[in-house]
Recover the amino acids of this structure.
């Protein structure tokens, strides 16, 4: 995952990759040793080289705020590859869940077959849009009941790509 | 007074239980309604809440045993409507009404209406309230009782000439005050004879507009006074005790912001003298139940009677923590006819307590009220911390009432420890979605003058003026630029981690610029997932 993060008007390049244990983080090209968990909605426990921070997230009508201790930072997060279709990860919701296309695009390939078991957050379909490829990930742990996407086909926002139960 | 029971000996406590109320109506809202409900529940008394249209989801409604609507949002159409509240008391079978503070709490007409309806008003009698409601009448009574008052007139000025004459005699600067006043309305500070007439004119018209009464009297202005008040309690059998002082000098626009007990300048001898005067004041008014006698204290530590507040005060918790008494329990027991369960010699102040009034106010916008939905609320607790709150996460703070959300009170063996504990707890206190004045208290508690107890009623205005200058130059505290920059990278990493760990939440859509409705709402998503079943 690659983000451009603008904090108080200053731009940072942030790379986050899921690793075997936790996340690999690079900030402006420099590796940073981090660990992070969301302890409750909008509260993140972040460890950076062993230093512990509790960060509170506040979404106002116009801005996204990160509160580090008592200091408030206005933050803008740009994700060039996001298709905004990622559903909540964690598999906390019961019942079947649909994978939906978030924006117009074209199916590039399928990463799993029907009736295969998937973990929450595992990629299922790759969609390309505006020359960017994006993995559409499973919103929950379960079985891929149906894949309605076919490689090469065009999709529109809201189209069902797959159903995970 | 007590009826005879067929069984032999029965303890005083058992008589008391027989006479105790079974159900109390709380004619208030917000943190004080929640606090009174808590006391009732502790005492095994059922509670009845009343609420306006915008308060249906308010915490006091959630916490009560019964709740009834009393009208639209404006207080004049709901919380100030005596007949509606008395009607609810009748319908619900409440035997007593606790008015809290504000609203109808110092309204003698309401206290009388309660008495006429056969409902016990938890507070003083209408007679005591009327005597203390007019500042000039209170001054006359106190002069009669030998209570020290600020030099001046104890009746309204008849003419500007008379006023100028009195001002010349007691010496400038003088203060013009509305007899019916409160909250700083109808008050003018006059430095010279030249200003006198126009100041009197404007004080009179403001008093008339605010209170429908243009009576204005004159007092010598005390330069940089402290505002120190004394808690009293009186039962209906004639016993009155004092429970120690509260230092309330930290005010803004005549509204208290931070209070503490004890005061840094009051020693045991001064405390006893103030307490005895306060008891004298209460007795002169045949006062019953909980009340507060306010004093102005000059730089030589002379104290003068200012006024009596005939209700439970917002800042009552600092007295509760330093004396160990529960004032709301005692108010209810006194109203039920019990004698005070202790005497003056049992009253001991121990430790130090400081209260911060947490308001929904924007510190970056001149402390303007900031209503709205609380999207996240992290509450402090732990050793030496008391929190009286009327808010909860997900609640929409209405714009119709006083912006007081909660009170955070720190308690310690001494002032220094109380400050340390409060600083710790303020750092843990966090509300998102609305603005609060939490950061103001963090700054005050760090201030050298505050830490040394150098306070007077002008402290906060000076402090804010000083603070604005510091903010303008953006002088960061310890660590300077470097620290701020380090935190900036933490904020950047946090924003990314929120996005990868919780991608469906609203925060992570920021910056995505694709078309509308691309992310289905939670409702839609829920609907879809359920339709698939």
């Amino acid at each position: 995952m690659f983000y451009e993060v603008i904090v108080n008007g200053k731009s940072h390049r942030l790379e986050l990759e899921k690793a075997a244990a936790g996340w690999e983080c690079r900030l402006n090209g420099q590796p940073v040793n981090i660990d992070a968990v969301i302890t409750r909605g909008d509260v993140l426990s972040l460890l950076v080289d062993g230093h512990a921070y509790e960060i509170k997230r506040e979404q106002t009508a116009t801005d996204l705020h990160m509160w580090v201790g008592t200091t408030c930072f206005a933050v803008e997060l740009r994700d060039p590859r996001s298709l905004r279709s990622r559903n909540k990860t964690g598999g906390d919701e019961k019942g079947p869940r649909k994978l939906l296309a978030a924006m117009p695009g074209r199916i590039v390939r399928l990463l799993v077959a029907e009736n295969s078991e998937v973990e929450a957050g595992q990629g299922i379909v790759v969609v390309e849009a505006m020359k960017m490829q994006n993995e559409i990930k499973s919103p929950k742990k379960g079985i891929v009941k149906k894949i309605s996407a076919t490689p090469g086909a065009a999709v529109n926002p809201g189209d069902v790509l797959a159903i995970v139960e | 007074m007590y009826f005879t029971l067929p069984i032999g000996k029965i303890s005083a406590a058992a008589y008391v239980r027989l006479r105790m109320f079974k159900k109390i109506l709380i004619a208030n809202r917000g943190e004080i309604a929640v606090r009174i409900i808590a006391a009732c529940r502790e005492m095994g008394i059922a509670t009845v809440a009343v609420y306006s249209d915008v308060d249906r989801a308010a915490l006091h409604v959630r916490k009560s045993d019964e709740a009834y609507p009393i009208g639209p949002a404006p207080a004049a159409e709901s919380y100030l409507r005596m007949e509606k509240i008395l009607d609810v008391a009748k319908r619900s079978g409440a035997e007593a009404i606790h008015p809290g503070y504000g609203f109808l709490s110092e309204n003698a007409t309401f206290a009388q209406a309660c008495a006429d309806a056969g409902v016990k008003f938890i507070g003083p009698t209408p007679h005591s309230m009327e005597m203390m409601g007019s500042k000039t009448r209170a001054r006359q009574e106190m002069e009669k009782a030998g209570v020290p008052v600020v030099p001046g007139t104890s009746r309204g000025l008849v003419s500007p000439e008379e006023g100028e004459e009195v001002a010349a005699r007691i010496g400038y600067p003088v203060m013009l005050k509305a007899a019916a006043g409160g909250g700083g309305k109808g008050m003018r500070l006059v430095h010279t004879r030249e200003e006198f007439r126009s100041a009197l004119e404007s004080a009179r018209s403001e008093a008339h507009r605010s209170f429908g009464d243009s009576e204005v009297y004159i007092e010598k202005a005390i330069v940089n006074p402290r505002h120190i008040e004394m808690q009293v309690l009186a039962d209906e059998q004639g016993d009155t005790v004092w429970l120690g002082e509260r230092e309330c000098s930290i005010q803004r626009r005549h509204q208290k912001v931070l209070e503490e007990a004890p005061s840094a300048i009051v020693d045991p001898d001064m405390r006893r003298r103030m307490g005895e005067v306060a008891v004298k004041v209460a007795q002169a008014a045949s006062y019953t139940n909980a009340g507060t006698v306010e004093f102005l204290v000059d730089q030589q530590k002379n104290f003068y009677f200012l006024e009596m507040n005939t209700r439970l005060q917002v800042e009552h918790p600092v007295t509760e923590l330093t004396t160990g008494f529960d004032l709301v329990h005692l108010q209810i027991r006194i109203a039920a006819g019990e004698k005070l369960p202790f005497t003056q010699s049992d009253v001991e102040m121990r430790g130090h307590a400081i209260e911060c009034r947490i308001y929904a106010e924007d510190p970056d916008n001149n402390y303007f009220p900031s209503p709205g939905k609380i999207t996240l609320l992290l509450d402090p607790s732990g050793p030496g911390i008391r929190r009286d709150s009327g808010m909860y996460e997900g609640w929409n703070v209405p714009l119709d009432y006083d912006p007081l959300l909660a009170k955070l009170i720190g308690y310690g063996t001494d002032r220094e420890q109380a400050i340390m504990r409060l600083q710790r707890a303020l750092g843990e206190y966090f509300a998102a979605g609305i603005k609060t004045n939490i950061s103001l208290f963090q700054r005050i508690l760090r201030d050298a003058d505050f830490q040394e107890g150098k306070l007077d009623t002008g402290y906060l205005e000076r402090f804010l003026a000083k603070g604005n200058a510091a903010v303008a130059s953006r002088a960061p505290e310890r660590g300077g630029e470097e620290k701020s920059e380090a935190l900036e990278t933490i904020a950047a990493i946090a924003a990314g981690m929120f996005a990868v760990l919780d991608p469906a939440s609203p925060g992570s859509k920021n910056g995505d610029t694709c078309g509308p409705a691309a992310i289905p709402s939670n409702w839609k998503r829920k609907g879809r997932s359920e339709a698939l079943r």
User: Anything to note?
Assistant: The domain at 19-122 of chain B is CATH 3.40.50.20 (Rossmann fold).
